[in-house]
Amino acid sequence: MTFIVLARSTARALFSGGRSYHRQFSTAAIARHLENVEATHHHGGSFYYWRKMSSLPEIKDQHHNSSEEKKNEDTTTTNNNNNSVVSSYWGITRPKIQREDGTEWPWNCFMPWDTYRADVSIDVNKHHVPKTFTDKVAFRSVKFLRVLSDLYFKERYGCHAMMLETIAAVPGMVGGMLLHLKSLRKFQHSGGWIKALLEEAENERMHLMTMVELVKPSWHERLLVITAQGVFFNFFFVFYLVSPKAAHRFVGYLEEEAVISYTQHLDAIVSGKVENVPAPAIAIDYWRLPKDATLKDVVTVIRADEAHHRDVNHFASDIHHQGKELKEAPAPIGYH
Ligand SMILES: [Fe+2]
Ligand SMILES: [Fe+2]
Questions:
Q1: How far is CA 192 from CA 187, 196, 232, 290, 314, in A?
Q2: Which ligand places an atom closest to the C-alpha of 165?
Q3: Which of 88, 95, 141, 331 could cross-link to 45 by cystine, CB 3.0-4.6 Å?
Q4: What pLDDT band is residue 7 in, cutting at 50, 70 and 90?
Q5: Could you tell me the distance, in angstroms and rounded to a whole number, from the CA of residue 312 to the centre of ligand 2?
Q6: Of 312, 323, 332, 309, whose CA–CA distance to 132 is shortest?
Q7: Is the pLDDT of residue 4 over 70?
Q8: Per-residue pLDDT at 84
Q9: Ligand 1 centroid vs 189 CA: distance in angstroms?
């Protein structure tokens, strides 16, 4: 039974949703859609309307759901189409939120207070020279993985970035979760490191949500992601338990490679090998980019984020190298 459920969810992950991945919304299209949504959903209680705004078919479903919702107003029901619960009875609807220019905030996956301007002045050439045996093993392992990924992706920069982000968003979540559990077990503060690592995971996931607006993963790439996640999550979980010092160093080197990859991506955009298309709407809001921002701007801010993750993880490893625990050094939080 468990096998059947697992097989069905894997098949669904592989074959559903692909239709939405290559769609690029212009700001104007979103504004037009916002007007439509506002015309039909002008009351509260519908916090899921923009849950997946990059998928037009789902938006169509949501219109359908809304008319049903009106019929069932003031009741708590389950919608058979998407299993969303009408929440008006419980008073937990999302307040109406606006952008600074007064337009309605279209996202539910992040709020205006989660947005920021990336520090693009960060040094993208910094490198931690491996000194100890652990450092050298971590560095060589990452370089080996790099060779494999270059062989697979070659010059498909967008696809490479998208696949990289599915892995890059794992370590912060695993590290944050393990520090969270440690804090509970030992009745100790974390020094802000739980938050810092979870912020990193969330930021990486937003990189993925951005890249997936530009690249359509094929079925075999989806299969690769599922397999890689199954292997990497478990590997990193054990790795972090055994040696957080080595795990953070390993991630520091992964982030160095991410910076290199995004630099190559930028070079390809500048040289014209990759078309400098308009930035996805989600990126414009998340990084507070100008409305006419392009892919080049997006890759520039993502690269700055990766450079920041590089520094955070090498710093974390250095703390362990000094024989201290992370909580003894204030965590770098609030960067994104
Ligand atoms: Fe990333
Ligand atoms: Fe990163």
A1: 14, 6, 25, 32, 16
A2: 1
A3: 88
A4: low
A5: 10
A6: 323
A7: no
A8: 57
A9: 28
Least confident of 9-13, 207-211, 303-307: 9-13
Q: Which ligand is nearest to the CA of 299?
A: 1
Ligand 1 centroid to 168 CA: how many Å? 6
Q: Is 154 left (phi over 0), alpha (psi -120 to 50) or beta?
A: left
CA 300 to ligand 1 centroid distance, Å: 12
Q: How far is the CA of 84 from the centre of ligand 2 (A)?
A: 32
Nearest ligand by distance to the CA of 163 = 1
Contacts of 83 (CB under 8 A, 6+ apart): none
- pLDDT band of 154, cuts 50, 70, 90: confident
pLDDT tens figures, 165-176: 999 999 999 999
What is the token pair recorded at 145? 């993985």
Backbone angles phi, psi at 22, to 5 degrees: -100, 0
The residues whose Cβ lies within 5 A of ligand 2, an ion, are 168, 255, 306, 309
- Helix pair angle (56-71, 27-40), 10° resolution: 10
Residue 165 Cα to ligand 2 midpoint, Å, equals 8
**What separation in Å is there between the alpha carbon of 58 and the centre of ligand 2?**
30
Which is nearest to 243 in space by CA: 167, 309, 320?
A: 320
Which residues sit with Cβ closer than 5 angstroms to ligand 1, an ion? 165, 168, 204, 207
- Note whether 313 and 307 are within 8 A (CB): no
Find the DSSP H helices in 243-293. 244-270, 281-286
Report d(CA 203, CA 114) in Å as an integer: 10
pLDDT computed for residue 159 by the predictor: 92
Note whether 286 and 203 are within 8 A (CB): no
pLDDT of 174-194, one tens digit each?
A: 999 999 999 999 999 999 999
Average pLDDT over residues 153-163: 90
CB atoms within 10 A of CB 184: 9
Residue positions counted in the chain: 336
Residue 98 — φ and ψ, nearest 5°?
A: -120, 155
